[in-house]
Amino acid sequence: MEIGIDALPLMGRGGISRHLIDLLPALLDQGGGHRFHLFARVFRRARRRRYLAATRAFHHPAALAWHAVFVPDRLLEFAWSRHDIVLPGTRRCLKGMDVLLDTTGLVPAGSPRPVVSIVHDLVPLRFPQWYHDHALVRRRLEKQIRRSSLIIAVSESTSRDLQHILKVPAENIRVVHHGIDARFRRESPERIEAVLRTRDLSRPYFLYVGGSGPIKNLDTLLEGFRRFRQSSKDGSALLLGGDLRWAPDLPRDLERLGLGGDVRSEGFIGDEELVALYSGATAVVVPSRHESFGFPALEAMACGTPVVATRVGALPELLGDDALYFDPDRPNELAEILSQISTDEKLGLDLGRRGVARASTFTWARAARETLDVLAEASREASPRRRRDGEEEPGEH
Question: Global pTM?
């Protein structure tokens, strides 16, 4: 197949970027004579540097072709998301494709080829009180779904949201779980200690990895940790890893809770150090009010670290009985679990062992195979329509 892909996530970081960054090599490894066309929006000068870095990182002459698109994002948003305007060149650019994989929700109006869209979550529609642009997000999702032949949902939880909130027929949805890269594995004690020394940290500690928006529920995390520290004498710290730009009041909150010296904000943590910090943690805590997938939970499991999570969204689906759960509105439950996991060594070892086994079932090879199956299905269903309409198939002359 000739497969077009919106390559914008390859030039960023975070959950959506991590998905394509790890999925693309697995797609290439599948072979099958497929050729992938990566369409990258590079109108902004700053993005061009990231584009050049991505072309060097993802280079495969036989199976990859990069295509720079010099069109402003705002124009694409206006034409495709707010309206149904077919931009000059779109049909010509995509005509040689068998299918287009949408990774960002920006689906071309009037695409001459079938589109398979990946939907990660519907959080702004589930929690509109926290998102001033939820109406715009809904309109964009509705257009994305209307223009897509099939939808890939990253979890059964997201599939249910698509069906219940946007009334997408179940037969139009395929669930494909993400994988967890093999780089997430139990790190050696020497490596753990080296990273801790570099960051001036010591054990024991609990670890949180993620953002700081209201959906991430840092209030319950901090209050639960405060209650744990009141009853515990082991001196555990809490490390916060990730983008905390949405938590400008964090220093004041820590001071108010009396946690100023017990909670450390580590900022964005690269994977090499993150593996060591996962491996050295007493537990990784996921306090979210909703997760459509939850990379940190499974990454921690892959490193043999116990996971303490809320029973919301996709977390029970992914973690099963191999994690400890608490109610997102009950910090006292979190405090009790932190106390339990910090004192029961046998429980921690058992959860760590079971977590490694569970995480091992989430592979990018499996995700790539299932993604290609969905793309092939969309292409097959579209081929008879193209022939009926008198349109030549890709490669025909």
Answer: 0.90
